[in-house]
TrEMBL record:
Pfam families: Hemerythrin. It comes from the Bacteria. This is Hemerythrin-like domain-containing protein. InterPro entries: Hemerythrin-like (IPR012312). Residues 53-164 form the Hemerythrin-like domain.
Amino acid sequence: MPKHAHLQQPTKTSQQAKADAIAKAQDMAPDLSIHIGSTPETPFRGDPDIFGRLVEDHDRHRALLAMIQQTHGKSEDRQLLFKELVKELKSHAAAEEQALWSTVLREPTTTEDARHAVAEHKELDDMLADLAARDMASSGWLRRFAALKEEYLHHIGEEEQEQFVAAEKILTDADRKYMRKVFERRKNEEKAAVKIEKKIKLKA
Ligand SMILES: [Fe+2]
Ligand SMILES: [Fe+2]
């Protein structure tokens, strides 16, 4: 029996789930090509619970990051995609903390995993505010953006391969389904309310 087959909801294949998530990002700028490259192996992609939902967002974020790297100067595409990326990353992180990490934090065996993920959210937030405050047309912008991309890919790769794996062990099927609903609701609310902070925070 495939892993998680007992969850009794239509499960997308891993490949289909990834293609759907990328297509969602592509809708925003159909002229840009997307090369997200290989993604770290994860058992969760396509699952009908919280973890499958989170990986779906991660794949969409991978696509947005790759698309922004293809843009130039202060173009309309770059402005539109960066704004969407900031809203996506901030609302995803907040809803992930509320739906998943808050519970995982309370279980002693996984406290460190949750703390690690949440601490990285704060670092990423600072990088986003820093980028938002800088001139998109300057030559340094894309260099700084590349650093954010690397940091974010590291963060989601680790979540998929380490922190989600540890968290899954302490959750029941019912927990994982319920958390998906909470995530969905909270993310929509958070995304509608996101304020794009602009503040230079980094020296290098
Ligand atoms: Fe995260
Ligand atoms: Fe995440």
